[in-house]
Amino acid sequence: MATSKAGLNFIVVGASVAGLTSAIGLKAAGHRVLVLEKDSQLGGPGLVPSGCPRVSPSGCKILFDWGLEAETRARSVLSEGFAVYKYDNGGKSPRREFIGVNLWNQELLAEARGGFLQLRNQDLLQILYDAAVKEDSNPLVTVIFGAEVVGVDCDTCTVTLQSGQIHRADAIIGADGAGGVVRRTLMLEEGVAPETHDKPTGLAMYGCASPNSTTRVVSSIERCFPSASIPRKLLEENGDFATFYEYPEHTITMGSNRGVIAYCSGKEKDIMMWVYTPDSSQDGTWTDVAEKKFVDVLGPCAEEIEKLAALAGPATCLQIRDHYNLQSWASRSGRVLVLGEGAHPLPLTGLHKPASFHTYSIALEDGAFIGKIFSRTRNRDRVPEFFHAFQEHRHVTPPTNAFFEPRSSRIRVLEKEYISLITLPDGEMAAARDAAMRANHADGRSVMDNDLEQMRDGMIWVFTYDPADDADEWCVYILSTAAMKLMGSDGRIGGYNGAASVPQASATISINDRSSFPRSTGRREYYQQYVTIEDGPTHHMQTIARESKNLN
């Protein structure tokens, strides 16, 4: 048994939100983590936006539970919902046509133990970076910048850098995105060519940056702070943009195959602006300047959208794609895993992307889940088991074991529904959508009530998720499986792992019906209800305890 009291050695490829969150979680579990980031500075270079997170309650609660609430709130804007407008008003008014408002249910947010926060990508990365490398008596996390991984050997558990340097670990985690080297390695292992299996959807996304940027030194690392927003001061000096600041300071503008998401970001309340357009021939990255100017891709729209776009600096352009679904997030060796966008890439500008509600929350969840389950073991031989446990809980296709819920597959569906809702082509469906929203607003309800309630309920399900509870649920499953190995045909404990030398025991085990217990049940209480062990002899209880020790 390859168990180390000092913990396991992990390599994390990518100092992304998912990568840094994984490092924090694994550090808390007592493991050593080497984070390799190809960019020379945190967040990457350039004058174009790298994202402006909208962190939902499921992600906020992770930051809060890790003691990062004060710092996160100080750098963010609290969102209480969003206002809905029409993209093109036919030139009737300089203003966008107002449809209504959707407000988040405060009871729901209280139950979810989190808020809905909007902040800069660089600020979130800095918060996570500082938490990961925070000096301890025995530092466990090392981050190396300018370390581009060009090769991954899943069998030897090594990575090769562009410099030729080789690093070896007990496990490798890929947090370098949908186009990252780790995901590409797993696709090739499945016999799939990465360049032919990510199909365009017919939409593209443009994001804007402010004309100016500043540079400063943070944590002894020189990093660029390119703004991913249009500064509030610039807006105040160049016209009336009051509708973008009206409560709840977050707007969604719906058009025919087009749309705009604009919201306040960071403590300065600058405006972040993302635009859906028909597909572009260019497919760039978050740090590539688009070939076209922002104002050139808008099409017919309200005048205030044109004026806002005119104040934007360089833009990015990325095609919205349907990505190939990996059959396995873990390598055949079980030593290499992808998470975050590498595991479950989502449509670019739905609820969960930089112009979205949950891209960052899902990344936070992935990292927190990995850290939580690996707090249960220091045994190198169990890495494949634990990596596959991650996939079982968060895979894009429903797992065969009904004990688990396919979280990321449901989120993927919500993403597509959200994009379709915003960009419906003009016609009967778009007219029905608008009429339903207007009627709800006239009746004093949120625009997504009634006919759109299913989508809203999906958001509720997303918001209230807790990765720590999910990880504990997996532990319940493993412990119950261990208990069932001891159970004889008469329902009493017999041999363990088929060992004939273990005598029949006087204890009984009852596996209760999980369906009767809600997901909100505390997991310790849940275990007591789900697996009941009565009056077992000492050696059987020691067997269960040994499994439990590896999982607690």
Automatic annotation (TrEMBL):
SUPFAM superfamilies: FAD/NAD(P)-binding domain. One of its GO terms (molecular function) is FAD binding. Keywords: FAD, Flavoprotein, Monooxygenase, Oxidoreductase. Residues 11-347 form the FAD-binding domain. It holds the Pfam family FAD_binding_3. InterPro entries: FAD-bd, FAD-dep_Monooxygenase_BioMet, FAD/NAD-bd_sf. Transmembrane segments: none annotated. Belongs to the paxM FAD-dependent monooxygenase family. This is FAD-binding domain-containing protein. The lineage of its organism: Eukaryota, Fungi, Dikarya, Basidiomycota, Agaricomycotina.
